[in-house]
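Model: You mentioned two targets. I'll fold them one after the other.
Researcher: Yes, keep them separate.
Model: Target one:
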Amino acid sequence: MQTLFLGHSPCNYLGLMSNLVVEHREGSFSRGLRRRRFIVAGGVATVEAVLVLADLVPWWAVVVAAVAAMAFYVGVGRAHSVPIIRSVSWVAAASQLVVVLVPVAVVLLGFLAFVGVVVLAVLALIVLLLDRR
């Protein structure tokens, strides 16, 4: 029994394999994409975010692409019988939605930086006014 499970007990072996789900008609590419979909979506979103922040791609085009990708995922991709279409549509929708949030985050961080500078200026003014020399 030990050699059959390569030095692991059957219970431990089943525990190690419990997170690997094999779907019907799923190839190795589709399985790998499904396992790494967060990494792939993050990479695509990073590249697109750089393009948006450098003004090489307009933000409205990203919003249109996000709406289209999400509509395709909800309408077709989520319930499609082919696993690769489900995975690719999920990655496209997720990456586009993240890219839509990047300019919002930049504006929010810019506002917070502005508030921080104003607070520091007010504190510096208070220190100057309280100086009795």
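Model: Target two:
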Amino acid sequence: MTRPIVATGLAAALMALASAAVASPAQPGPSGPEGHHPRFNFAAIDADGDGRLTPDEVKAFREARFREKDTNADGKLSREELIAAMMKGASARIERRVERMLGHRDRDTDGYISLDEALAGPGVDRMFKRLDANGDGVLTEDEIAAGRPRKGHGPGPKPAN
């Protein structure tokens, strides 16, 4: 009986730790698909490299991330310090996204996306094919709302309450 409780407790602790690691500025190591949301970086936390995490290693990791964010070293994270830390992570993600966008759209590889390159491809046709429910060649607000993906729920209208 204690084994499932211990396993559940360990899983919960690791999830909490993963949340703290993800909330930190991006750390070197593996990242998720397309560079989104860093995965739990076990190696960064496992200070002695023995393949096991101790409470001291977890605390040391969290303290180091805290100190990185505490730029004025007053032992507290201000609103500005939290914003700066989050912007640092966001900036890296945006940079990766721009590189992917240039890779897909910049057909002549000049480092710019021209209007012709921006309009190239099946984007508009694909959008109308997917959203134009009655096939009349125009989109209404209702058709767009019905086809707009809802976070975590896929396309479709919001359920009635």
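Researcher: Noted. Anything on target two?
Model: The beta strands are 149-150, 154-155.
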